[in-house]
TrEMBL record, chain A:
The lineage of its organism: Bacteria, Pseudomonadati, Pseudomonadota, Alphaproteobacteria, Hyphomicrobiales. GO terms for biological process: amino acid transport. Signal peptide: none annotated. This is Amino acid/amide ABC transporter membrane protein 1, HAAT family. It is a multi-pass membrane protein. Coiled coil: none annotated. GO terms for cellular component: plasma membrane. It comes from Methylobacterium pseudosasicola. GO terms for molecular function: transmembrane transporter activity. PANTHER family: ABC TRANSPORTER ATP-BINDING PROTEIN, BRANCHED-CHAIN AMINO ACID TRANSPORT SYSTEM PERMEASE PROTEIN LIVH.
Length: 295, 328
């Protein structure tokens, strides 16, 4: 068997793939956080809870309605997005004139409520969600075995991230969005309905979280705590990348997933903390984050 | 600018400067609290009271940072929890007497506060909160993996020991007396810090950092100092809790503990002297009565968070202060 640095290639590439998968979720989640933060100036603590909700909606669609994975991939983000729009209209919109920190506190409370409700209903043991038939099995590559579903997760999340980036950077809608991020008052004066923009942006940002949740459902079991654990790591990813750049948060997400995978191979004890350690290093060297602008 | 702006509940204290008769009122309240502490064990269960006092001190320490420094740390469980681990470890495995164990736990929290604080104050506003949360999560994973913390079991059956080698704390009444002394000392120290020249500069930085800097104050040194003070006092609370309950566990370092102390401060009133005590009383009581309902505790906590942020930003004591037009 071939080895690299004393590690069997099979294990190395296996962990790298796993890292890439985790990186996909970090990328989609931090992208959503960055978009919401850019326009609404709040950090959405409920992002993890809504990611979990996406996975649960997929599970419910299958269990109660009988709609499979592909339906869930379209419907779950829609449900989560609409839920987010309601949250924004009813609760979050009341805080725009206050300090950003209140937004953090409010969404933290919302995360507790959403998580608590699902925990009450479904317990904490986790519910299985099968890989769709079209994507079961895998490819035997010369250096490793590649499960089809995992390849699909990486491709799907990359596609969504790039599509989002294209919409924001290259379309008229995206131009409005960027303008509203820079100077909402002026954009409003030009006749653009900025409050509507805020609502739709929040809805879209959390719909991305819901989409990530559906992708995650067959890999990790569907569990009320799945969002709480990942959101803190995503916060660290956001601090490392800086929220100034859309593409920056995507690159940072994938890269940190890979680093985490590599750590699992060479020094497994540190794999849970490596991202936080990198955050510390980045804060020491480049406090504004790798892609951040210094204020 | 918005990043450094104070929370809008805080200026209540700033708008009403502390005058001499206010200080007399505060002195009266301190005496009232002392009397209550003496009378309370006649009516209430001492272990419940000790729990309230530990969390009240924790919330007071947290409020020192949030209410007067304007810094929202979302990782205060790290100092509370790491201190409780070190205190439990030195008391159980090294045979320290309770006062030395508490001291070593508190010193640990100070050290963590210094390192984490120095990193976190490099960013402001929302980033500051995220960094403190991420650093605390690192402390959590460390506690989960390190040998001396006992992993999922925590450190159990910590001996209460003999205070100064003489007075046994095994009896709840003796323990209660000791906790009362620590609590009063901590509370008076925080009161002193808030009203010292250092505290005044701190409030100036909270309200307008660029202006304070232009006046020649080194804002980041003041921020670091208050961060370390807050972490140290949080560690004092965590260490005391470890001795009282003879247990240090992962619950104390988990992010939900950080959330809880934010909630206590929010409910009682950010930036008020006495608010965190009331908040701790309310939240601990709520949890004690709701413990049987399992996950509903989390849901109700979340609802209290949402309601406080939307409708009740002054908190209980903040509201009273507004009605009687005196800083509390």
């Amino acid at each position: 068997m071939t080895t690299i640095f004393g590690v069997p290639t099979q294990a190395l590439f296996g962990q790298l793939l796993l890292g890439l998968i985790n990186g996909s979720f970090y990328a989609i989640l931090s992208l959503g956080l960055a978009i919401i933060f850019g326009l609404l100036n709040i950090i959405n603590f409920a992002h993890g809870a809504l990611y979990m909700m996406g996975a649960f909606v997929a599970w419910m669609l299958l269990t109660y309605v009988g709609l499979g994975y592909w339906w869930a991939l379209g419907l779950a983000p829609l449900v989560v997005g609409v839920f987010g729009i309601v949250l924004e209209r009813v609760l979050i919109a009341r805080l725009y004139k206050l300090d950003h920190l209140y937004g953090l506190l409010l969404t933290f409370g919302l995360a507790l409520i959403i998580q608590g409700l699902f925990r009450n209903q479904y317990g904490v043991s986790g519910l299985p969600y099968a890989i769709p038939a079209e994507l079961s099995g895998g490819q035997r590559l010369p250096f490793m075995f590649l499960p089809n579903y995992r390849a699909w997760v990486v491709v799907a999340s990359l596609t969504v991230c790039i599509a989002t980036w294209l919409v924001i950077e290259k379309t008229k809608l995206g131009a409005y969005l960027r303008a509203a991020t820079e100077n909402p008052t002026l954009v409003q004066a030009f006749g653009v309905n900025v409050p509507l923009f805020l609502t739709l942006t929040y809805g879209f940002g959390v719909a991305l979280a819901g989409f990530a949740g559906v992708l995650a459902a067959p890999i990790y079991s569907v569990n009320p705590n799945m969002g709480a654990d990942i959101i803190i790591v995503v916060f660290a990813v956001v601090v490392i990348g800086g929220m100034g750049s859309i593409i920056g948060s995507v690159i940072t997400g994938f890269a940190l997933g890979l680093v985490e995978g590599l750590t699992k191979v060479f020094y497994p004890e540190a794999s849970a903390t490596v991202i936080f350690v990198i955050m510390v290093l980045v804060l020491l060297v480049k406090p504004a984050g790798l892609f951040g602008r210094t204020a | 600018m918005a990043d450094t702006a104070a929370l809008d509940a805080a200026p209540i204290a700033a708008a009403l400067p502390t005058r001499r008769d206010d200080k007399a009122l505060h002195r009266l309240i301190f005496v009232g609290i002392a009397v209550l502490l003496i009378v309370a064990p006649l009516v209430l269960y001492p272990v419940y009271l000790m729990k309230v006092l530990c969390f009240a001190l924790f919330a007071l320490a947290f409020n020192l940072l949030l209410g007067y420094g304007g810094l929202l740390s979302f990782g205060h469980a790290a100092y509370f929890g790491m201190a409780s681990y070190l205190c439990a470890y030195t008391a159980k495995s090294l045979g320290f007497s309770p006062e030395l164990a508490i001291l070593s736990g508190t010193a640990t929290a100070a050290l963590f506060g210094l390192v984490f604080g120095a990193l976190a104050i490099r960013r402001q506003g929302i980033y500051f909160s995220m960094i403190t949360l991420a650093l605390a999560q690192m402390a959590f994973f460390f506690s989960l993996q390190a040998k001396f913390t006992g992993g999922e079991d925590g450190i159990q059956a910590v001996p209460r020991g003999n205070l100064f080698g003489v007075l046994s704390l095994a009896d709840d009444r003796a323990m209660y007396g000791f906790v009362c002394v620590i609590f009063m000392a901590g509370m008076l120290l925080i009161y002193r810090i808030i009203h010292s020249p250092f505290g005044q500069v701190l409030k100036a930085i909270r309200d307008n950092e660029p202006r304070a800097i232009s006046l020649g104050y080194r804002a980041s040194q003041y921020k670091l100092a208050v961060f370390v003070l807050s972490a140290t006092l949080a560690g004092l609370a965590g260490s005391t809790k470890a001795i009282v309950f003879q247990l240090a566990s992962l619950t104390d370092v988990h992010w939900s503990m950080s959330g809880e102390v934010v909630l206590m401060t929010l409910v009682g009133g950010m930036g008020t002297v006495f608010g965190p005590i009331v908040g701790a009383l309310v939240i601990v009581t709520m949890e004690t009565y709701l413990a049987q309902f399992g996950a509903w505790v989390t849901i109700i906590q979340g609802c209290v968070f949402v309601m406080c942020v939307l409708l009740f930003r002054e908190g209980i004591v903040g509201l009273i202060a507004k009605v009687i037009r005196k800083p509390l």
